[in-house]
Design goal:
Helices cover 41% and strands 17% of the residues. It is α/β, with parallel strands linked by helices and 281 residues long.
């Protein structure tokens, strides 16, 4: 297949380029520097010139707190940018596979969210990503994921390891729960969805619900350090308080994958150990 990837310089986009290329597909990856998705004409030219069989739209503004103070930019990138990608995709009859987020939910449900639950975002970031979902045509794919970590770019695993080097004790919230997701596993599943031409909404995360406090402990364990160095704290006690509200429950049930008979993703501790080893070398 000929696959065009936006946001190819990000932690997921970089892995997508690698996985599709390793599978023998012809890949054109555009970073923010080579394709600004808020420029309609540029998006059309890029898509028309490459004429892909499928587009993976990974480009997004994911700075959750920054989105809160600049909603116009958030919606320009995450919603209007997606509109431009979809418009261009129509010209070459290519499906769009859009990467979305757990932030489309309010986090109030007392069980994992399935693909058919009603979104109710509480932050500008979540609102803008849900707006992006609404721009997609029938036959496209929404891939919602959460707590993404990977080798490329900044993420929580790298932050925890850095803080562990700088401080004797660490504090992480114990009242926000989710599924950590690792970029290489996510990219592999997206590749499968694209090559099998699957459409609709899919939740794609690694397995194993934890709080951020528990996740930080697991990171230290994977690095051979003492998890007791991590102390729990309530979100309400964070100083300074975060501008954007976080869903207390970000646990996404990968129900559509399971019900479609597709292989489940690994427990997050498996790719976590892989990533910690890779970062350490």
């Amino acid at each position: 297949m000929r696959v065009l990837i936006t946001g190819a310089g990000g932690q997921v986009g970089t892995e997508l380029v690698d996985v599709f290329s390793a599978g023998g597909h012809e890949v054109q990856g555009f970073t923010h520097a080579t394709l600004d998705v808020t420029r309609r004409d540029a998006v059309r030219v890029a898509v028309m010139e490459f004429h892909p069989d499928a587009i993976v739209h990974s480009a997004a503004w994911t700075a959750v707190d920054a989105c809160e103070s600049d909603p116009d930019r958030a919606f320009a990138v995450n919603a209007i940018g997606t509109r431009y990608v979809v418009e261009a995709a129509r010209l070459v009859d290519a499906p769009v596979h859009y990467i979305s987020t757990d932030y489309v939910f309010d986090g109030l449900k007392d069980s994992p969210y399935v693909e058919w639950d009603q979104p109710n975002p509480q932050s500008v970031y979540g609102l803008s990503k849900l707006a992006g979902e609404s721009e997609l045509d029938d036959g496209s794919t929404v891939v919602r994921t959460s707590w993404v970590c990977g080798f490329h770019g900044p993420n929580m695993v790298k932050t925890i390891l850095r803080l562990a080097d700088e401080h004797e004790t660490l504090s992480f919230v114990d009242d926000q729960f989710g599924h950590p997701t690792f970029a290489d596993d996510l990219a592999a599943m997206i590749t499968k969805l694209v090559t099998e031409r699957r459409s609709g909404v899919f939740h794609v995360t690694n397995a194993g619900p934890v709080s951020w406090f528990e996740f930080a402990q697991e990171v230290l364990l994977a690095a051979g350090q003492d998890p007791a160095r991590v102390h729990p704290i309530a979100t309400a006690d964070l100083l300074p308080a975060r501008p954007a509200p976080r869903p207390a429950n970000s646990v996404l049930d990968n129900a559509a994958l399971r019900l479609s008979g597709m292989a489940s993703t690994a427990d997050f501790r498996v790719p976590l150990r892989r990533l910690v080893d890779r970062v350490a070398t």
